[in-house]
Amino acid sequence: MTRKGRADRRLDLIAAAHRAIVRHGTEGVHLNHVAEEAGLTSGAVLYHYPRLSELLVDAHHAGMERFYEQRLKRISGMRDPAEKLVVTIRSGLPHGPDDPDVRLLNELGGAAPRNRMYALLLTTLYDRQVSLYQSILDTGAALETFRLSGDSLPIARNLVALEDAYGYRITARHPVIGPQEAAELILDYARTATDNPLKSSH
């Protein structure tokens, strides 16, 4: 098998593990579940990932890319801090109750107290998201687009905490809190914290 072929196969296995985790839970998923999702034998999975735990960590990490790397890339060409803040808030929420990436994070959060690696992954993601928000807030304050109500760090931490809380409510199928309602609730806090109307096209 070529090097590219092996790399592609590992990506397929990561995607299969992602689906298996969402279906069976982080602590309930087994090798045969991943193999079934991938359409392979268990031996074929082990050829590329001799340790299932390694594959599960890679699957969790890949699922997290959307909430930092992809958000960072999405706003990288924007100049207006207010636009950046609105887009960042909206892109951190589930698309709906069955959003697989957010369900994966929920599974990870449930297992984190018993697994140091999962706890480290979640802590790292949280800290990176906070730094992303803090950078937007500090830039906005420097440009006088924002007049912050306090230090940027606690504001950034609150924004991430609100994302997490409302994201959970969406995946728990709260009857009146969907992605749009959650975004507006977080934006309400952000408007107060930045003294900016944060107009949204949505």
Automatic annotation (TrEMBL):
This is TetR/AcrR family transcriptional regulator. It comes from the Bacteria. Gene3D superfamilies: Tetracycline Repressor, domain 2. Residues 30-49 bind DNA. Coiled coil: none annotated. The keyword Lyase does not apply. Residues 7-67 form the HTH tetR-type domain. Signal peptide: none annotated. The lineage of its organism: Bacteria, Bacillati, Actinomycetota, Actinomycetes, Streptosporangiales. It comes from Streptosporangium vulgare. Keywords: DNA-binding.
